[in-house]
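Anyone up for a design puzzle?
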C-alpha cells in the first residue's frame, strides 16, 4: 500500500481500450424503503462493470431486490487501505464502478474517502449520483429551523470524550445533527439531559423511511422518557436546537 500520498499509475499501459475513460460513480441507495432509489441510480448499477460495497451481505440483498447481478468488491474500515489500490488498478483498465454503502449516501460516516482521493489523483472521473440521505430526511421531517445546521455526526464512544464533545456543542447556535449506534441512544440522551439540560429542544428521527418510522419532538427529557418507556432500539438521527 502506498499511503495517503497517493499512487500514480501508467494509465496508458493500463487501459485496455483507448476510448474508455474510467469512471467511479458514488451512488446513493435507500436508507430503509427500497422504493427510495432513483432511476439514474438503477441505470448506473445495471450498466457499471462492477460494484464496490461496504458489506457483501447488505449489497447482495439490495441488488437482489432490483434483480441486478454484478461482481462485488467489499471496501470497509477493515480492508480499505489494502483494497483501494487494487480497485484503482481495475478502474484504470477503462472500467466503470459504482460505490455504494450499506444504505444512504456513501462517504457520510462510511468508508470510501481514500478510494475517491486515489481516483481523483489518477484522473478518474468521480461522479455523484444523489439520492436518499438520513441527514436531510431528518432535517426536513424534524420541523426545526435548519437554514443553518451543524452536522457533527458520531460522538466518541468513550464516556469522557463524548461528554467533552457535548459541552463544546453548547457553544453552537445552529441546529446540531448527531448520529450514533442504536444501542447508545439511551446513553446519548442521558448525557444530553445532564450536560445540555432537560429542556433543550430535540427531535429524534427514528427508523426513517421504514414501517416503524416516527419523529419524537419535544425536549431532551421528554424524548429520553419515551425511549425508556418504549424501549426504543433502532437507527436514528438526533437533532438538537441550542
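Challenge accepted. My sequence:
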Amino acid at each position: 500500500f502506498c499511503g495517503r500520498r497517493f499512487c500514480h499509475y501508467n494509465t496508458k499501459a493500463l487501459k485496455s481500450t483507448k476510448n474508455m475513460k474510467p469512471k467511479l460513480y458514488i451512488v446513493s441507495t435507500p436508507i430503509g424503503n427500497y422504493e427510495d432509489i432513483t432511476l439514474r441510480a438503477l441505470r448506473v448499477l445495471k450498466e457499471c462493470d462492477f460494484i464496490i460495497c461496504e458489506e457483501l451481505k447488505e449489497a447482495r440483498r439490495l441488488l437482489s431486490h432490483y434483480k441486478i447481478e454484478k461482481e462485488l468488491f467489499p471496501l470497509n474500515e477493515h480492508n480499505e487501505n489494502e483494497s483501494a489500490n487494487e480497485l484503482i488498478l481495475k478502474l484504470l483498465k477503462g472500467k466503470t464502478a459504482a460505490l455504494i454503502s450499506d444504505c444512504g449516501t456513501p462517504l457520510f460516516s462510511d468508508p470510501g474517502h481514500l478510494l475517491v482521493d486515489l481516483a481523483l489523483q489518477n484522473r478518474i472521473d468521480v461522479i455523484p449520483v444523489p439520492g436518499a440521505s438520513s441527514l436531510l430526511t431528518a432535517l426536513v421531517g424534524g420541523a426545526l429551523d435548519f437554514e443553518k445546521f451543524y452536522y457533527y455526526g458520531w460522538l466518541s464512544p468513550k464516556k469522557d470524550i463524548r461528554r467533552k464533545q457535548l459541552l463544546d456543542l453548547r457553544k453552537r447556535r445552529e441546529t446540531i445533527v448527531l448520529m450514533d449506534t442504536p444501542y447508545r441512544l439511551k446513553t446519548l440522551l442521558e448525557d444530553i439531559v445532564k450536560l445540555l439540560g432537560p429542556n433543550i429542544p430535540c427531535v429524534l428521527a427514528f427508523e426513517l423511511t421504514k414501517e416503524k418510522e416516527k419523529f419524537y419532538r419535544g425536549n431532551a427529557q421528554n424524548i429520553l422518557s419515551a425511549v425508556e418507556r418504549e424501549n426504543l432500539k433502532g437507527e436514528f438521527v438526533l437533532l438538537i436546537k441550542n
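A detail worth pointing out: The beta strands are 23-27, 50-53, 71-74, 96-99, 125-129, 149-154, 175-179, 201-206, 214-219, 236-241.
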